[in-house]
Amino acid sequence: MKSKRNLKGAFTGFAAIVIPVLFAVAVLVFLFVMGNPENFQGNNTANLPKPGNYLGTIYKGGIIVPILMTILLMVITFSIERWITLTRAKGKGSISSFVVRVYQKLASKDLESAIDECDRQRGSVANVIKAGLLKYKEVSGSKDMNKDQKVVAIKQEIEEATSLEMPILEQNLVILATIAPLATLLGLLGTVLGMIRAFSALATAGAPDAVALATGISEALINTAFGIGSSALAIIFYSYFSNKIDKMTYNIDEAGVAIVQNFISQHN
Fold it and tell me: Within this chain, do residues 139 and 37 fall inside the same structural domain, yes or no?
């Protein structure tokens, strides 16, 4: 119990540290890489970007750009972190094949081999199944409990083990879920700010300020692109990881039911 809670806390600490670091990286890249005077005509950031210079063009997106860059980096970072975590949670080899092997061991009444399969597989699914099998082994020899109490004890053990593993699997997914709408809204905010600047340039007396007009349009388009792109990636990765977690949960539930049914059939 304690080790699982510490692991969950470690992931929370990971997010608390990574987000400010990513924001600092985004600001530094925005100011010193994209905002390098060499990216602009006359080596002056107040001028238009040099033709074909995308760094300068992105810099003209304005103050919302580093925030959107942070969000994009968050999507990439937490997607990699979730992929590593879920890969470890799956354990070694196919989960479906592992569950089948456990079924076969239980069917042949070889409980110890089934537990050994869990030790070889490792991962969250194997941890839950092993917890159920250990409780199965414990209550099988107990004379202080009737059959119904033993079945309830096995079910409770599997549920408790599942409740410890699920937070580890789902940790930081809420960040991806929050980023999806947030990136779109921030992109829209940047678009609105850019259009305000563009229309202000058109409203000047005499000839419109071409530089301000171009800057306003760039700001609007860059923020729109960043916002939509980051949101799309967040939705894709969130759906992908949620689907993987659902499959693992299904395998855990399926194995739990099989363990209970096997116990009932062999303890009449």
Answer: no
Residue 130, amino acid: K
CB neighbours of residue 192 within 10 Å: 14
Distances (CA, A) of 202 to 47, 129, 152, 207, 210: 17, 68, 74, 8, 8
Whether 233 is in a domain gets the answer yes
Q: Is the dihedral of CA 87, 91, 94, 100 positive or negative?
A: negative
Contact yes or no for 250/127 (Cβ under 8 A): no
Alpha carbon separation from 103 to 47, 66, 151, 260 (Å, rounded): 70, 53, 18, 12
Query: How many Cα atoms are found within 13 Å in the side-chain-facing hemisphere of 208?
Result: 14
Angle at 182 between CA 181 and CA 184, to 5 degrees: 65
- Give, as one character, the DSSP assignment of residue 122: -
Residues 21-64 pLDDT 10s: 999 999 999 999 999 999 998 999 888 888 888 888 888 888 89
- DSSP code, position 46: T
> How far is 235 from 154, CA to CA, in rounded Å?
38
Same domain, 64 and 10: yes
Instruction: Please tell me the total count of domains within the chain.
Output: 2
Q: What is the pTM of this model?
A: 0.83
The token pair at 265 is: 């059939």
Q: Residue 255 contacts by C-beta under 8 Å, 6 or more apart in sequence?
A: 99, 102, 125, 128, 129, 132
Whether residues 143 and 209 fall in one domain: no
Tokens of 77: 């970072």
Residues spanned by the domain of 225: 2-90+170-252
